[in-house]
Amino acid sequence: MENLSKKEITDILKDDKQNDWLFSYADKIRKKYVGDEVHLRGLIEFSNICKRTCKYCGLRCENRNLERYRISPDDIVLYAQKAVDMGYKTIVLQSGEDEFYSRDVLCKVIEKIKELDVALTLSIGERSFEDYKAFKQSGADRYLIRIETTDRNLYTKMHPHMDFDNRLKCLKDLKKLGYEVGSGSLIGLPNQTIESIADDILFFKEIEADMIGIGPFIAHPNTPLKNEQNGSFTLALKAMALTRILLKDINIPATTAMETLNPKGRIIALQSGANVVMPNVTTTEYRAKYEIYPGKICINENPSQCRGCIEGKIKSIGRTISTNKGFHNKKI
Ligand code: 5AD
Ligand code: FES
C-alpha cells in the first residue's frame, strides 16, 4: 500500500464503498508505527492580525468584522508556563501573519519558553530564511506551514498576492534548517479536484513531511467564499487516512475543523490514522476572536476544561496520553 499511484489514490478517494476498510487499515498502520500514545500540543493563538487575504480565511485583513487582538510577548510566555504546568510537552505558537512580532521579539519568546523544557512549534506563516534561522537558533523545534493545495492554479486563486513557489521555498528552507516540518491541506475548496487531493498526498511524501494536518474547508460568512459549500468531513478523513497509510510513522493531528463538522470528529480521526490533538491553552477571551472559520469548537471553554475533555475522550477509546515530547520517530 505504501507505493500507491496517483490513479490508485484517486480511485480510493472517489469510491466510498471501501471507506470502513480504509479507516481501519489506517488505524492499524497508526498502531504499528506510532503506537497507542496520543500527543497533546498546547496551542496558543497569540494574534489574529494578518496581512494576508486568503479567500477562505476569516482572519484575512479585509475582514473588518473581526475584533483583532495581540497577546503580549510576556503573556505568551505566561500561557506557555501554565500549559507546561498542566502537563503539555509541546507548545504551538500560532498567529496570523503579523509583523508586530519581529524576529527579535519572537526569538526572546522562544528562548523563554524553551527554558521550560518543552518542544516548541511555530505556525506563523511565511517569513525569510534569516527569520527561520534565528527562530531555530533560539530553540524552535518544529514549524507548521500548510501548502493548502498543490494545485498551482487553485492556490493562486485562493491566495491573492501570494506566490506558490515562495510557499515551496519556505518548506525547503525549514527542512534545510533542521526543523521538523509540518504541512497539510484543505479539503473541499471550491473547484478543487479529487486528482489534486491525490497530488497533495503524494506531495507530503515527496517532501518527507514530519507532520501533516488535513481539515475540511468551512465557508466563513465574512469572506469571498461565503456562498460556497463546506468541504466533506468524510473526504477529509479519507485524505488523512491515506496520508497515514503512505507516510506511516509521521505525526497526524485530529484537526479541530473535523470536529466542527462532526461532533465526534476528533475521536473518529484518532481511530482513522491520527495520533495528535492540539487543545487550545489560551483563556476564553481570545478564542471566539480567532475565527478562521465559523463554528470553531471550545470557544466557551478554558484551558483546564479542554484538557479534561480531551483526556476523557482519548481514554474512552483505549488510548493513552503521551508523556514525552512526541518528536517524529522515523521508522521507514
Ligand atoms: N476552513 C477550514 N480551515 C481553514 N483554515 C483557514 N481557513 C479555513 C477555513 N475557512 C486552515 C488553513 C490554515 C490553518 C491554520 O487553518 O489550512 O493553514
Ligand atoms: Fe476543548 Fe473538548 S477539547 S472542550
Describe the model.
- The protein has 332 residues and is α/β, with parallel strands linked by helices.
- The protein has one domain: TIM Barrel (Alpha-Beta Barrel).
- The chain has helices at residues 6-14, 19-34, 73-85, 103-114, 129-138, 152-158, 164-176, 194-206, 233-247, 256-261, 265-270, 284-287, 303-316, and strands at residues 37-47, 90-95, 119-123, 142-144, 180-187, 211-216, 276-277, 320-321.
- Strands 1, 2, 3, 4, 5, 6, 7 and 8 form an eight-stranded parallel sheet that branches.
- The radius of gyration is 18 Å and the shape is globular.
- The model has no long low-confidence stretch (mean pLDDT 98).
- FE2/S2 (inorganic) cluster (FES) binds next to helix 13.
User: Given the C-alpha coordinates, what overall shape results?
Assistant: globular
Overall strand count: 8
The assigned structural class equals: alpha/beta
N-to-C span: 14 Å
Overall structural domain count: 1
Give the overall average pLDDT.
98
Order of helices and strands: HHEHEHEHEHHEHEHHHEHHE
CATH topology call: TIM Barrel
Radius of gyration: 18 Å
CATH superfamily: Aldolase class I
Heterogens: 5'-deoxyadenosine, FE2/S2 (inorganic) cluster
Unreliable stretches covering 5 or more consecutive residues:
none
Q: What is the count of DSSP helices, taking H or I runs of 4+ residues?
A: 13
Oligomer: single chain
Note the beta-strand portion. Answer: 5-15%
Give a short account of the largest sheet: 8 strands, parallel
**Roughly what percent helix?**
40-55%
Question: What's the architecture, going by CATH?
Answer: Alpha-Beta Barrel
